[in-house]
Amino acid sequence: MAKVDFEIPKLKKYPEIPVVVEGTMAHSSPYVAAEKFQVQLDFPGGNGEFQEGWKEKAIEKMGELLGKYRSLQVFLDSCVKCGACTDKCHYFLGTGDPKNMPVARQDLFRAVYRRYFTFAGKYFPKLVGAVDLTEDVIKEWYSYFHQCSQCRRCSVYCPYGIDTAEISMAAREVLDHIGFGQKYCNEIIGKVYKIGNNLGLPERALADTLEGLEEDLEDETGIAVKVPLDVKGADILLVTPSADFFAEPHVDGLMGYAKVFHEAGVSWTVSSHASEAANFGMFIGSYENMQRVAIRIREAALDLGVKRIIFGECGHAWRVAYSFLNTLAGPWDFLDQNYPIPQHICEFTHNLIQDDKLTFDKSRNDDLVITFHDSCNVARASRMGDMPGGQFTIPRDILKAVCNNFHDMAPETIHEHTFCCGGGGGLLTDDLMEIRVKGMVPRAQALQDVVDEYGVTNLVAICAICKSQFAKVLPYYGMEMDMIMSLHQVLSNAIILTGQIVDDDDEAAEDAA
């Protein structure tokens, strides 16, 4: 755990509304994207410097977005300052900065909108809180709109359903168009265009990685479980976050997918052209870049001739897939219409469990006491299965099928009320470590409560960003980094493959079960 130069909040038995401290996070800003990263995304360079005509370009872009997204103007016009959202943001709860209240963060954008796009704001600005767009305003936008993980928790409690995430996306898109793009997100999107995934993992390295996983799987099970790459004519294209190829606990989840596909007897493949489920175009609010990333999935599906597309464990990738994929890259009429388009790996696995096609030895997970983190984009921007709330029940059903010790966190911190991990929305970068650590306070407290009450040993998530954030930040709150697990990692522990070599201890456990 790296040393930090900020105070780490203390976890408390009962949640408290923090003392308001004006400007306490005003210093927090991510690195600005260099011109070479901006140009790859069709944005102007600038390297964080104000260029000639920046103000006119920003106002023009605001007007374009207001015309393009009717919801944006509705959200900007409909707030009545009721205060329902003020204590719902994990970043406000962790920092006490009033501009991290969702309504106050919205107002940074709303004040400029009123000045240039409303009658009252043009002629009576002080009466309606309208402000001129200045360099200081842009700097404030760049700071505080990168202290929003676009988790949408505030929108659950807003009586008008105002979506702060959409306002944050709009602000970031304006910033990109005047040369103030965020280095982390824009550099990653550029890697996808150049290589095919966020990590910049080239085809040859990917092939070597998957071959290594096949060796590990055979050593573990005695069975030649394959992790295929670029297999034409396969039935299923797996689109998964590139973290699944690289790091724990992500890669353990990928091994779990492979076991499930093997036992189901289906043919499947990964694509080197579209070896990334994540779509950071959403984080920066750029529909055009979202589409460019999504089109790679369509191209891979057509090239390989697959019939189905299944997404791995990634929160925002599932939101993009579930909510936008048909619009971004459809129609998908060349796929088998008898299956969901797209489908989540949890849906696929759950269906097999319901049909009694998978065998488990739950005792293999008896050393674990598990709880589950509902990732924001899955919980509040998608669903699974054929019923409302499936995104909550399906992962939990899988966990209960593969382990004996499961406990949920407090009801007000799960399902649609879930707290963000603190690293989503394009904030998973070390230059934003302070806001990441402080933003985890509500989730860390809820986790600590079940650790104390039930002896929980492990936290399971189905989001690549959540897993990375927890592994990095949990130690700041006195918990182990390997406490976080992939859902299909837990399943992988328990699944018994047909013909698998089972040692004496496992046979005894199966008999006892």
In short:
The chain is mainly alpha-helical. It has helices spanning 35-40, 54-68, 70-78, 90-95, 102-117, 119-123, 135-144, 153-157, 164-176, 183-194, 203-221, 250-264, 287-304, 315-329, 345-354, 376-381, 390-402, 433-439, 441-454, 464-473, 487-494, 504-512; strands spanning 236-239, 268-270, 308-311, 343-344, 370-372, 458-461, 484-486.
Description:
Helix 2 (54-68) packs across helix 3 (70-78). A four-stranded parallel β-sheet has the order 2-1-3-4. 47% of the residues lie in helices and 4% in strands. The longest helix has 19 residues, at 203-221. The chain has helices spanning 35-40, 54-68, 70-78, 90-95, 102-117, 119-123, 135-144, 153-157, 164-176, 183-194, 203-221, 250-264, 287-304, 315-329, 345-354, 376-381, 390-402, 433-439, 441-454, 464-473, 487-494, 504-512, and strands spanning 236-239, 268-270, 308-311, 343-344, 370-372, 458-461, 484-486. The protein contains 22 helices and seven strands. It folds into two domains: 35-181, Orthogonal Bundle (Fumarate Reductase Iron-sulfur Protein, Chain B, domain 2), CATH 1.10.1060; 190-407 and 456-512, no CATH class. The chain has 513 residues and is mainly alpha-helical. The model has no long low-confidence stretch (mean pLDDT 95).
